[in-house]
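Pilot study result, target chain (128 residues):
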Amino acid sequence: MPLIFSGCSTCNPVLYPNQYYKMVGRKQADKDVKSTLAEAKKAGYDDKSKSGNDLGKSAVKTAAGVGVNTGLSFALGGFGIGGIISAAVGGTSWLLECIFTKKQPDPVFKQYVETRLAEKGYKVIGWK
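Predicted structure:
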């Protein structure tokens, strides 16, 4: 059965333990964060970043990978086995990046979530 990945993990807001947070407790705060994230998505805000910086980083990584994989192909005696290994290396590097890299949400999505949480009494101090 093939593995299906829905994408890389996304950051969540980190709340400052102000008076309201202490009053409602961590369990309720976690529920409020989860419902606010869902509310933002339902309102049409996308939690996936579409920044040009991310695209630029991907392009550089891809170009570097092509160069390394081409050299590897020649070193291993041609494009047959080298091509197979190159594909495996490329897929593995993408998977590892996806597993270990948290993606920053879109700035408008973040602002919406931070505003709604502030209206509820929370203070967002960052995203993690």
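One observation from the pilot: Residues 52 and 58 are 10 Å apart (CA to CA). A full batch analysis is planned for the follow-on phase.
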